[in-house]
Design goal:
This is Y4tR. Helices cover 32% and strands 23% of the residues. The protein has twelve helices and twelve strands. Helix 5 packs across helix 6. Bound molecules: adenosine-5'-triphosphate. The site of adenosine-5'-triphosphate has 17 residues, from strand 1, strand 2 and helix 2.
Length: 341
């Protein structure tokens, strides 16, 4: 079968990505100066794709996610520039009412600590039905049945009992499942999950990751997953974005990133990941720590921790540039023509 484009001998047009962040800058005014928590970040999430943002604490992962939903707290915090295109439309230009509609309806977010996102004196059932009733014209009875289905979908065996429970009566793993059920209640096209398994023990962590994978496969939901755990990245990601000090330092499809990490920071993160059957006297850690993001100058911000840093790295910021197909890194090691500063 030929498509119209083939008969006309034109290349097939690619669907626009579901989410495209272009040159995003998010700043906080602090006593130490302007903190550039997100500094010129561009990334893409396609339909049905899982993109993981990885990096140590304080690299700007959560602020990137909060910026998408415009949950940056003013007056100290603000989005200072860039575009966030969702389905081709710039969210930064959308009216507050539109953003409220998109939040929950088309983009949903789950956080690290489910307890802080649930109301302690409302039952799980009340909290699950409320967003359904708010966003869609359905009866209370239909919303209840839908909520019970969602509880079942996230792998809870006795939905009625959980429906009638209060948050404090459930375990951390159950609460995180409920958070996922709430996020799914309006069939979002994009699910943003910020360290959704960090507070859970490893068995429950694996179950929650399984659940997210199943949702992606069965519903075609795109996922933007934030984690500091490369094990989670290996299991979940199609594409990986590595952030350091508010900037993207490397991004690539998952296999490419694990096989050919290019940036010394990514290489350090991978070296620091425990590997089964490889005994080392002590687990490697990257020396030093993420710098404060206030008033950083024009140089590679990883240079003071980098085993391969040169004078050039300490005097100019490298740009994020292509290395291979779909693979980009911001590092002076990769043979760029350098003009005198
Ligand atoms: N409300 C705020 N006011 C001032 N600085 C902030 C604020 N929120 C975040 N930051 C700063 O922005 C930077 C990035 O923070 P962010 O929470 O995005 O990091 P992260 O990579 O998600 O780390 P973690 O895994 O610990 O959440 C940090 O230096 C942080 O101190």
């Amino acid at each position: 079968m030929t498509t119209r484009n083939e008969t006309k001998n034109l290349p097939l047009r690619e669907e626009p990505p579901l989410l495209e962040i272009r040159h995003l800058h998010t700043h906080f005014a602090t006593e130490e100066g302007i903190v550039k928590a997100v500094n010129d970040v561009s990334l893409t999430v396609r339909e049905g794709e899982t993109v993981c943002i990885v990096g140590e604490s304080g690299c700007g992962k959560s602020v990137t996610a909060l910026s998408i939903l415009q949950l940056i707290q003013g007056p100290h915090g603000r989005i200072a520039g860039g575009e966030i295109l969702f389905g081709g439309r710039d969210l930064l230009q959308a009216a507050p009412n539109d953003i409220r509609r998109i939040r929950g309806n088309e983009i949903a977010m789950i956080f690290q600590e489910p307890m802080t996102s649930l109301h302690p004196v409302l039952t799980i059932g009340e909290q699950l039905t409320e967003p359904i009733l708010e966003h869609r014209p359905v009866s209370r009875r239909a919303a209840r049945l839908e909520a019970l289905d969602l509880i079942r979908l996230v792998g809870i065996a006795r939905p009625e009992a959980v429906y009638a429970s209060y948050p404090h009566e459930l375990s951390g793993g159950m609460l995180q499942r409920i958070m996922i059920a709430m996020a799914l209640s309006c069939h979002p096209r994009l699910l943003i999950a910020d360290e959704p398994t960090t507070a859970l023990d490893v068995t429950i962590q694996a179950q929650i990751l399984d659940l997210l994978r199943r949702i992606k496969e069965e519903r075609g939901t795109s996922i933007l997953l934030i984690t500091h755990d490369l094990g989670v990245v290996a299991e979940m990601a199609d594409h990986v974005v590595v952030m350091y000090a508010g900037r993207i330092v490397e991004q690539a499809p998952v296999l490419e990133l694990f096989r050919h990490p290019q940036h010394p920071y990514t290489q350090g993160l991978l070296r620091a990941k425990p590997v089964l059957h490889r005994r080392e006297p002590r687990l490697y850690t990257i020396p030093g720590q993420v710098p404060s993001l206030a008033g950083l100058g024009d140089f590679c911000h990883f240079s003071d921790r980098c085993p391969q840093a040169s004078d050039l790295c300490r005097s100019r910021q490298p740009e994020l540039l292509p290395i291979a197909d779909g693979h980009e890194a911001a590092c002076w090691l990769y043979g760029r023509e350098v003009s005198a500063p």
